[in-house]
Amino acid sequence: MGKVYLVGAGPGDPDLLTIKGMKAIQAADVILYDRLVNKEILEFAKPSTKFFYCGKDPNKYSLPQEETNRMLVSLAKKGHTITRLKGGDPFVFGRGGEEAEILAQNQIPFEIVPGITSGIAAPAYAGIPVTHRDYSSSVAFVTAVNKPGMSKDAYWEHLAHGPETLCVYMGVKRLPEICELLIRHGKSIDTPVALVHLGTTASQKTVTGTLGTIVEQASEIKNPAMIVIGDVVQMRQKISWFKEQVADLEMTLP
């Protein structure tokens, strides 16, 4: 019987990969990796390592989760050491819990290697702390897709009156609807909002506004991007530190 490492590859910057994650890549003879994994970290693997792409592209054909589960079980039963690489953290909207459950059901040894999730890292690289004693003592990491069995209104009403900071994953295409629902259920139209595209990478771009303005201001922002909603977004004006692509280009203009 082999072994599976479910590894969080971090938010994009290869330097944010954990040491334990790097060791799992080095130990693997098979690596299954997702779409948002920075390919640079695959260079830590042994020359003989075999790679399988298991990405889920929302605009193209994606490998079904069931097929990924089958591959993990089959390869492990053949005695392979497998590292399953996921962008961010495997247990934060990464379906790592589902894969761990399948492995446990098949009595396959596995380890969980947490990674830095983009919900923390992307705002940090944009100069936005997700908590701050003057602005927010609570934060929620949420997906733009409401829970099964819960209506959109119930889901966003709960969030509109919940944590002071919302970090929304996979929400760019639904940004107009998200803003409308939060405002409808009591969130101020002037609540600050930021979208961080390709956070922590050399292509990072951040756009800020409010619930009432961000849809128009961020019209050119595409996936992948993290949406941050709350008063903490105001801190970007004070502690923005990472030189983003647009800022660098502006510095070179005559």
Shape: globular
Largest sheet: 5 strands, parallel
CATH names the topology of the largest domain as Methyltransferase, Cobalt-precorrin-4 Transmethylase, Domain 2
- Strand-pairing-aware structural class: alpha/beta
- Summarize the helix and strand pattern as letters: EHEEHEHEHEHEHEEHEHH
The beta-strand count equals: 10
Poorly predicted regions are: 247-254
Instruction: Give the count of structural domains.
Output: 2
**Rg:** 19 Å
Annotation keywords:
20% strand, Methyltransferase, Cobalt-precorrin-4 Transmethylase, Domain 2, 10 strands, 30% helix, Cobalt-precorrin-4 Transmethylase, domain 1, 254 residues, alpha/beta
Could you give the topology of this structure?
Elements lengths: L2 E6 L10 H9 L2 E4 L16 E4 L11 H13 L3 E6 L9 H10 L4 E4 L4 H8 L13 E5 L8 H9 L4 E5 L5 H10 L7 E6 L7 E6 L3 H4 L7 E5 L6 H4 L5 H8 L2
Parallel strand pairs: 1-4, 1-5, 2-3, 2-4, 6-7
Antiparallel strand pairs: 7-10, 8-9, 8-10
